[in-house]
């Protein structure tokens, strides 16, 4: 019979609560069983059969068991320490003793004689005085035992409570120590962050001087010697760098509470917005974006015009940057009695609801497709508005079925008194980066094919323009687009950035490495990620080289040429091995055999074309053939085209099958 079955059986007899209490004190009640056995045995020894079982059981229930628990109850009742409880306890004590003597006299002078006569024992001659003495000894004995039990239980209870309190105190101390350690760690992290931030701000400040000199010298050079594609690309990149550095520097100064703007000026917000929109219309037209605007005239605010100009530029620039072609940007400037409201609404890629709270965190770039940046525009706008007691809000687009972002800025409206500060809106050269149009550059089918994977349009355009002078070049702006273009045509070499939206360079390389049809294509990584871990990861994914940005273009070009030359040597060696294998298995049909010469005559190939076709069959590229024959590579290319046309083939392998 299991313990659970015993518990259930006891519960059915006395009830679940009583059973739980009995089970809790099971060892205590086991003691009374042992006590009964002990008393029965000793009484048998002392008095013989005169003290039989039923008499012994009645004595146990009415004497020790009754007195013990009665006194324990009394001590618990008196633990309250009030006069009323003491009086009640005294009366209870008198009652307990009275009940005890009544039970004892009833048993000894009435019940036990009847039981003895029934069993044939002689009647016991009992004396009242003797019974009082014996009863008094029983009372003192179990009074002392109850006191001992009560204080022992109370002691262990207190000990248990003390242990629990100590455990809780220890847990609290550990929690407090852990909290102090976390707080100290947080203070240390904050201190380190502030140190790094301060160092970063100083570094930015130091960069501003050489950057200013570079921009001015570049502009002077363009004025004197006219511009070029490379100089325009440099000017755009320098303008973007200058803007980012100014944003970093001003954001840091605003964060430290330094005065960046003089807001004790009256700014013509309406006029400033109109001036800026005239400039932005140039960019929106070139990007095929419709720009709609409604401007309430003569609205002014007590603010530095440079600060308001910064707000307008950041909001409109973001709208243009994140809007696709054939979309609309709507800008409105309205007011009520106390406030001016500037609303910029676009139909671009939008901001996910879960990331709205992050748009004002500096240096946090949201997951927008193919748009890279430092994430400083909106944090800077918010910092400026905080100094103007203004507000910026990201509103949900109310146009059904259309994505996009609506930003609402509110400024305090001035009463129009005082002189309006003059300010001239500036031309934004860095926005020209959005106009860069990328295109594939194919000029020679026999030249190697490269794939440039780079999300920065300026860098992609630069690499495509430079490398297209030597190679056929195609482009992709992220890893996912690169996979599609590779499946359309397998390139001879891939040059890829790593940090890109949608799919980065590492993900792309991992997909290619698992594809048996594509894992032979060599990859060169170009990245600003320069840790040893990044380099090991790139090489581990199958890249043949890993170059840090900024990089040297001549070195990149030499590496490309070396990798392609090695690849060509390996292909020629493989082809030669295949030819040797075929020569052992089949009758000889080499480029010097009679069948080859006869076939060339059939297709009316000239002696020079026969010479060049034999080298094509041997696996040489156009450049190698030109070097061996001491003729121009373009001449070799023209001969190859003529040979393919005469024989009616499109590849070297088809040429081999027809001529050998």
UniProtKB/TrEMBL annotation:
It comes from Pedobacter steynii. Residues 598-660 form the HTH luxR-type domain. It catalyses: ATP + protein L-histidine = ADP + protein N-phospho-L-histidine. The modification 4-aspartylphosphate is found at residue 497. GO terms for molecular function: DNA binding; phosphorelay sensor kinase activity. The lineage of its organism: Bacteria, Pseudomonadati, Bacteroidota, Sphingobacteriia, Sphingobacteriales. This is histidine kinase. Gene3D superfamilies: 1.10.287.130, 3.40.50.2300, Histidine kinase-like ATPase, C-terminal domain (3.30.565.10), Winged helix-like DNA-binding domain superfamily/Winged helix DNA-binding domain (1.10.10.10). Residues 449-564 form the Response regulatory domain.
